[in-house]
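ESCALATION

Customer reports they have been waiting on this structure for their group meeting. Please prioritize. Original submission:
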Amino acid sequence: MTAPPARERFLSLLQSAIEDGTLVKLTLGKPAPGAADATLRNVFVRPVTLRGGPHLTFVFRHATRDITKNHPPAAALEVIRDLLGREFLDAHAFTPAQTAQLELAPDGTGKLRVRLASAAPAAASTQHDREKSRLVAPNSPWLSDLGVTTPSGLPREGMAAKLRQIEKFTEILQHLLVEADLVPAPGTASAASPAAPLRVADMGSGKGYLTFAAAALLGDHATVTGIESRPELVELCNRVATTRGFRRLTFLPGEINHLAPEALGDIDVLLALHACDTATDDALARGVASRARLLIVSPCCQKEVSPQLRAPAVLADALKHGIFHERQAEFVTDALRAQLLEWAGYRTKVFEFVSTEHTAKNTMIAAIRTQSTGQSAALERLRAFAAFYGVRSQRLASHLGVSLEP
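Update from on-call: job pushed to the front of the queue and completed.
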């Protein structure tokens, strides 16, 4: 008797997991050739409990936005059936006991792999507005050593905002690592863990708050290196790392733009949080040159573009005010960075890192490497944008060999 096609066997496994309540998460990826929506990158599905009963929530991840929809189980299964093969060629379904992976070819043929979990994770909560678990325990010894909390886990005076910033960064980092397919989603089979440790570099690591957070989050799955120009901070962070047993965390002295390429080697994840002015561009350029899969920066002190900014006539009266000119220069700088990264083959998003209640330096640029690079249309758009504001040069553009003038 001929076995059913791989797609139908996968859907049957998925239906069973939905019906018996064991589905943790479903991911759809690898857009099919000729897909109806060229901007749709992935779909993430998980079970939730709403007022109307059990549902599945779908997050449709597009190039520049996310769309969330909820469907009851039967309707959800039909949506997934319609997407498989037509919009996406890959699917992963996770339960506490196993992972099912479907790989389809454009002609409809496919392969189904089912792997048993080496350790059964706890089933995912289905509460729609469930409280997020803390990824950073406030009583972590390294937080106390760095002066953020007391040994009992309470924020020290003036450090409550810093603790919240560390917690928020860790949440964002975990989400972006999953989105970039660098780590498995929480609660999924451990078989998806990276075969080799990720290589993470934090450029301008300062006192190491976020560097330690990244190392604590990834554990033995990553080698984390902090780069800092102040020797006393390098010494402090290395001492804490050694004392607290961070075997894969090291801090090196040096300036971002003067660091020899061999000092770090290839990078999978590039961090640069609050690197001042063009140091952000130096860090991004190092990440692009290393073909890092994930870039995360939070710029500050964007001064380079400000002297070049020439207000278009319609904005002249507004930008004669210094505060508006400064804010516009920050916007233009970060918008150019985002567009340059897209030209260089990254899918980029810009968002608020934490509320301005916690820090005024709250813009974050995150970029995930894709396969397409150097699109002429993207170059034309960023040049038009630069010309609109009279910007002729910018540090990241120079690093990437991109002329902003037509």
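Sent to customer with the following note: The CA atoms of residues 98 and 144 lie 39 Å apart.
Escalation resolved.
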